[in-house]
Amino acid sequence: MQAKALAFVGTMSSVGKSLLVALACRYFASKGLRVAPFKAQNMSLNALATEEGEMAWAQAYQALAAGRKPSVRMNPLLLKPLAERKAEIIYLGRPQGVLPAGEFREFRRAYRERVFGIFEELLAENDLVVVEGAGGLAELNLLEGDLANYELLKTYRIPYVLIGEIDRGGIFAQIWGTYELVSELKAQSIGFVVNKFRGEPALFEEGLKILEEKTGKPALGLLPYLSEHFLEEDSASLEFSNRGFSGNGLKVAVLAYPYLANFLDLDPLRHEEGVELLFTTEPRVLAEAHLIILPGSRNTAKSLRWLKETGVFELLRELSREKFILGLCGGFQILGRLIRDPEGLEFSGEEEALGLLPHETIFRTPKRAGRIEDQPDFPFWRTSLSGFEIRYGRSFLDGREILSLSDDRILGTYLHGIFFNDRFREALLNYIRQAVGLPERPTRAYSETVTANLDRVFEHPAFRDFFKRLEKLL
């Protein structure tokens, strides 16, 4: 292999870049190479906190696919959207303040050399760095200072695969148009791929030939639409359901209130056999569930007010008499008696919460982000539990700061990532199964699920052939 870096860039958002990078990391690592993922700048509310600080979950997932420990250097810049056209800046895992929308260009100029220096470090330490672009390559109004796409590719002459997504239409304009709009980078492209195709591949053979003729670039693959959801980094890609549950297993409803964040905390549940997990706002679906989860929120106060405005607030109080309810981080805060924000981090003043648990929460700086350990007093779990925290909120009970709390069927914790603990997940699910009359069952290790899912993708001839062809070109 001659290339030290390979980039996957898209014609637009949600074309499948994150998953293809994860697959590339796994494929080339299986060939004995030391591989690292890299995304210079990511905008996402799905973050994981390592010992170093916060990073986007997509790059953590890609690191696991490569058999590597996630590092914040794999995603040096993380922007976490806030309300009112602002975003929190996370650099190398640590908060750097809030970025107003009008200062985006200045922000990127300020971080350019630092981010590129980190990329050079990864190049020196690895056999291959697999780069994920952000959004679309041909965002002409954003090209100046585009750290994640244009400037990185141009500065380091990185060969790249252009990904177009046919499921939403416009594939010819996507691929041909992107090459034409950034023609100065066209020579660096080793080809294009058409992703998320439904139907018989022979039906689009002519389409691939037309694209090859128009672009002068080879079609590296026509990749099928995957019905399984392996890596959904953006909540816009989530499937929200009001249809109700269809199976006979354990029913888990995730309350999809506005400002939902860190929903990938729940990914191990989504892939758990015998568990049906639905994201929903429908009262009927909540009433059918055995377990209701209140997930994290990037604005807990606004999520709480939405509960009150829609009537779900009182519904949850009623359902608490018979359902299991679990709050994670912001959801834990909502389960308490009161939320106060004297510094105006999310709102000013105080807000009554559900009162299903007796603690009170106060928002204050500095932000806490990192690995943490707790020993929750849950009915099914009273030993040490590891996870990570990303929060401004502090919760107190009788003057003592707490990380978790429970009262019979109501559970809450500040720990993100607890479902990645296979023993904890099994203990919780079987505790609920026992209470609702379902048979207990063992849990499969989540790491095995991740690798099995990725390996199963390679069983499809289109993906297998694509990566074999890619290997030859590099």
UniProtKB/TrEMBL annotation:
Domain named CobQ/CobB/MinD/ParA nucleotide binding: residues: 7-228
Entry annotation: catalytic residues: 329, 416
UniProt-recorded Gene Ontology molecular function terms: ABC-type vitamin B12 transporter activity; catalytic activity
Keywords, comma-separated and alphabetical: Cobalamin biosynthesis, Glutamine amidotransferase
Keyword hit for Cell cycle: no
Entry keyword annotation includes Zinc-finger: no
InterPro entries the UniProt entry points to: Class_I_gatase-like (IPR029062), CobQ/CobB/MinD/ParA_Nub-bd_dom (IPR002586), CobQ_GATase1 (IPR033949), CobQ_synth (IPR004459), GATase_3 (IPR011698), P-loop_NTPase (IPR027417)
Listed pathway(s): Cofactor biosynthesis; adenosylcobalamin biosynthesis
CobB/CobQ-like glutamine amidotransferase domain: residues covered: 251-424
GO biological process: cobalamin biosynthetic process
Leader sequence segment: none
NCBIfam families reported for this sequence: cobQ, PRK00784.1
HAMAP family given in the database record: CobQ (MF_00028)
Assigned protein family: Belongs to the CobB/CobQ family. CobQ subfamily.
Function noted in UniProt: Catalyzes amidations at positions B, D, E, and G on adenosylcobyrinic A,C-diamide. NH(2) groups are provided by glutamine, and one molecule of ATP is hydrogenolyzed for each amidation.
Protein's UniProt name: Cobyric acid synthase
Highest classification ranks of the organism: Bacteria, Pseudomonadati, Thermodesulfobacteriota, Thermodesulfobacteria, Thermodesulfobacteriales
Gene: cobQ
